[in-house]
Amino acid sequence: MPTPHAPTVTGAAVPAGTEQVTDGDDECHTAPSPSGGRRRTDIPVLAVSGGLLTAFVLAALIAPTATGDVVNAVFTFVARWFGPLWQVLLLATFGVALWLGFSRYGKVRLGGAAARPEYGRFQWVAMIMSTLLAGGGVFFAAGEPVQHYVETPPYYEGVKSGTQQAADAALSQSFAHWGFLAWAVLGTLASIVMIRGQERGMPLRPRTLLYPLLGERIRHSRLGAAVDIVCVIAVVAGTVGPIGFLGLQVSYGLSAVFGISGGYPVQLAVIVLLTVVAVLSVASGIDRGIQFFSRANIWLAVALMAVFLVLGSLGFVLDSFLGGLGQYAKDFVPLALNRGDHAWLGSWTVFFFGWFLGYGPLMSIFVARISKGRTIRDLVVSTAIIPPLATMFWFTVFGGTGIFLEQQHPGSVSGPLKAVGMDAAVISMAEQLPMGAVVAVALLLLTITFVVTTTDSMSYSIAAAGTKTGEPTRAVRAFWALLMGAAAAVLILVGDGGITALQSFIVVTAVPVGFIMLPTLWTAPRVAKEMAREQNLPPAGPPVAAPEPEPSAPGPREPQA
Question: Which residues share a beta bridge with 29?
Fold first, then answer.
């Protein structure tokens, strides 16, 4: 059964500065550096995190089987014993975020009462969506609903496969993985804490998440360095995987559609091309490369959705979206907290929740970097509500079309999915549509641009996590993009297992990251309350009526005639 641990997993995913600096121009600062001219790059954090990645790659290259066995054993233990904590944490994060967004604290302006947004709403949401959705938004969107359709998830045991009820259940389960909870943990409470820390002079680094608890001493402590390193490793593990699998997926797509079977040379060429583009993009800064690719991703994604709706079955997709969304709403809390089948949960729900949680700190850096001037309500709506709804419709367009084709021709999508993996599902689906070759190439192109966006934005975030003050330098940004590309290129020499092991390792690193993110459940409301007070927002409760004016004292009585 293909699972997120299968050799064709792609992932999502997930940059900052600490002072007002012209993005992309390392010499143009508008405020003096508190470091007083000292080196901005935190060499120990850079060296340790980069060294650990290099050590993992070498271990996988020298002893791939032993490395994979160790990682899988630790992964199984972690998923079993920490999975319940992550499920509760993600659900609680979504609940607290909704409460903050739609309470009086929703009017709090992030960055101060005078702050104004740096980016338009479309640009802002496009950067957020492109960074998280990544290549997984293409390949999981097609393969996961079909997988749940042909093999009913344990929570929906008893639902007959091959029916419309099975289609609704398959989409509902996919929504539970990629919907509201995933987006909330990546862009709400932690981002609020990050922006508040920056207001107080803290850098946009993972350690700032602990600032409301530990105060100024977290800035230069060993604990702060450990927090940064753990969070960097988690994101690197989750980003190298998609880069490597992209090479494998494009190679498979070229072979299936055009009969081009290039093996490792083709895979390596794809990774080199992606790495070069990511380096150029991240070096140009958020206002250029990242923003350009984000807009391109959204427009190409919209165009592909339109193509699938026209060439596939519009009626079936719309019916399935409403049915799946209704089922998801009905089972929202039970799906989030389901503990029925530990093995299945470890391969699917807990894996995804651990993966997204591992991205949380650095994704919150990126969201904080681009969200100053927005209100908390803006932040919650534009990260935890609009993107998940768009993602769920996206999954229905692709997964629903796959289910429709599977119903028309049993085995046409599930067969390649079972034999090869997630990448085969989307290619086999595209080949059954009119102009299948063109559609398949467009899907591969979209996957490349999504992974480029994730790679450059995460290179930016990782570089920021290792920067003491100000914007990360171009050299450090480029270093991380190059290092992740090189790691992916080396790991695919080992075979699919090398990258799968690294990607599984993100769930292991999610253990400490979960404890770093846990305090945001109460520190985010606390800092929101502080900001509301500073911005003179009215207190909670019904409006108080103005007191009645005192009656004026009567004048002297007029003498009566």
Answer: 21
Tokens encoding 275:
């790495």
Q: Is 220 exposed, middle or buried (0-12, 13-18, 19+ CB in 10 A)?
A: exposed
Of residues 427, 517, 528, 481, the one with CA closest to residue 243: 481
Burial class of residue 488 in the structure, from the number of CB atoms within 10 Å of its CB (0-12 exposed, 13-18 middle, 19+ buried)? buried
Judged on CB neighbours under 10 Å (0-12, 13-18, 19+), 1 is exposed
Which amino acid is present at 502?
A: L
C-alpha to C-alpha distance for 395 and 374, rounded to whole angstroms: 28
pLDDT band at residue 4, thresholds of 50, 70 and 90? low
Instruction: Give the CA distances from residue 104 to residues 6, 367, 525, in Å, rounded to whole numbers and listed in that order.
Output: 45, 22, 11
Find where tokens 């914007």 sit: 471
Instruction: Tell me which amino acid residue 108 is.
Output: V
In a 10 Å sphere around its CB, with 0-12 CB exposed, 13-18 middle and 19+ buried, how is residue 80 labelled? middle
Chain position carrying tokens 């749940």? 148
pLDDT of 97-127, one tens digit each?
Answer: 999 999 999 999 999 999 999 989 888 988 8
pLDDT in tens, 317-368: 999 999 999 999 999 999 999 998 999 999 999 999 998 999 899 999 999 9
